[in-house]
Amino acid sequence: MAAAPFKRILIANRGEIAVRVVRACQQLGIESVVAVSEADRDSLAARMATRAVCIGPASASQSYLRPELLVTAAAGTGCEAVHPGYGFLSERAQFSRMCAEAGLTFIGPGPEAIEVMGDKLSAVKLAEEVGVPRVPGSGRVDNPDSARAFARTHGYPVLIKASAGGGGRGMRVVRRDEEFISQLAAAAAEAQAAFGDPSLYVEKFIERARHIEIQVLGDTHGNIVHLGERDCSTQRRHQKLIEEAPSPVIDAKLRQELADAAVRLARHVGYVGAGTVEFVFDDDTQRWYFLEMNTRIQVEHPVTEMVTGRDLVIEQIRVAAGARISFTQEDVALSGHAIECRINAEDASANFAPRPGRLQTWVAPAGEGVRIDTHCFSGYLVPPYYDSLLAKIIVHGRDRHEAVQRMQEALGRLQISGVPTTAPFHQQVLAHRDFAGAAVTTRWVEETFLPSLKQAGAA
Amino acid sequence: MSTELTHSDVESILKIIDAAEHLNEIEIVHGSFRLHVVREGNGNGRSISAPMPMAPQASPPPSANNAPAPQIVAAAPAASTAPAEIPPGAIAIRAPMLGIFYRAPAPGEKPFVEVGQRVKADDTVCLIEVMKLFNSIRAGVDGEVVKICAENSGLVEFDQVLICVKPSKG
């Protein structure tokens, strides 16, 4: 066996991803030091790791979000590298830089790549430089005529947006020429009230949008490979709930187009490590647009691992140590279908309110084609300080139908008591004809599925 | 009559301080309790440079006794630093932050304190360094140093016992 890429790694994260990275370290013969807050002293990752170091109080702002504590902990325990996981400091260029200055290898891309992709405008600009389109948008729109001209070029419907805005305020969908006069006035008034700035622009409105992302991997030798796509269209308020691979709505030609675009973009920034290029896919026109690039391992990475048989976290660690990606593009073959459901400690009937608490019972299903990534166990206290993710159930089947069946079986065998979870929600979504028919769009949960549940409950 | 501040009292105080925009430093004295908070200029947050004689902490949940997840293979001890024993009658000065522990103001200089030495509450007993930022740790209580529990220039974890002081009577 080849020598371990590092002797010892600090894991600057918690929950299931910390457990995931500890496992990868064990497989590679690397010692793991997991940084824990006071609330996580007794976590599964802390018990499994070679060592745990308490970096601060429970609040993330005083522990997991403090780069100076994590760098000190890594250096003070003799680590050579730092794995940031996802969330927390994983996409802070400054953390990557501080690690480098302390002589530690940051397991992820360099600060420049994080910075340029972290800024929405610069990322879109880079994408356009390599011919990767974004959702068409106008410049500032002052009158109905210029808005109409945009809409005629790109087609209805279009979305009026506030230049200063965000969060849906000042947004208006326009479907016909004659609607512009009243809708522009209303949107300008709303934008003025919300942001103190009435400036507006117009964007192509994608009515039936699917979220499709491409997994890429780069090494320090200039190699970039992709590992196919993940379809994460089942979302609620931009939070992904179910992810699957391959996407049920694209064919081989579209897959190749998306993958080529992602690889071009990654190559353009000299990308090193695991990254994800996200696209909006218009299910009506079959056109796709660049959304953003995430410069870290993603929550839903196991879906890709199940259909490719590649271990992304191990590759991440190896390339960080300067190794070449252990396979070539030609070696990447997609096999079968994988689905992931995120099991959160949330009450779906109470607007998905987080519900931390003690897990009285925790029995996770096991079996052929079933993988559970979790940090939970019977008696574990789900702390109130962090996100509500308890586990990811990932299944693999020969085809989508078998994968859905396996997931239903796995969800049925999951036994959790002590906190409410999103497992029943997943069972209902998977049983819905829209999910079976791949008709789910990114607004489906909020606009179609949840209202239908409410109606059924009232009837 | 209970005048002891509980851990949650302290957390509430810290929250109020965190929320205050123009506050850079505050010192609160309440009976034997003294809280000294300094907010660094670079927004690095605060450092608590006095030990907090806190109400007894709730012991960690005994989840280790419950059935662990079946997939744990090699369970290593969660904390590799065994908790230091606090001599009877002594008060522990704990690390208010993770960092590198220094007994002396500079290499080669005399340590701030030695076992047997008498200290005043305001005396600096050690330093903790977090990336070139040195935090003075005060005794927090008048008394006699009875034990030094951390190793010079080694990493100390958050809340780790550094030094034990037997408080003076009266």
Protein described:
The complex is a heterodimer of chains A (459) and B (170). Chain A has 15 helices and 23 strands. Chain A is an alpha+beta fold and 459 residues long. Chain A has 3 domains: 8-107, Rossmann fold (3-Layer(aba) Sandwich); 137-204, ATP-grasp fold, A domain (Dna Ligase, domain 1, 2-Layer Sandwich), CATH 3.30.1490; 209-458, D-amino Acid Aminotransferase, Chain A, domain 1 (2-Layer Sandwich), CATH 3.30.470. In chain A, helix 12 runs antiparallel to helix 13. The longest helix of chain A has 17 residues, at 252-268. The relative contact order of chain A is 0.11. The model of chain A has no long low-confidence stretch (mean pLDDT 95). In chain B, the strands form 3 sheets. Chain B has a 4-stranded antiparallel β-sheet, with no helix packed on it. Chain B is built from 1 helix and 11 strands. Chain B has one domain (7-55, 86-167): Beta Barrel (OB fold (Dihydrolipoamide Acetyltransferase, E2P)). In chain B, a hairpin with a 2-residue loop joins strand 1 and strand 2. Chains A and B meet through helix 2, strand 3 and helix 3 of A and loops of B.
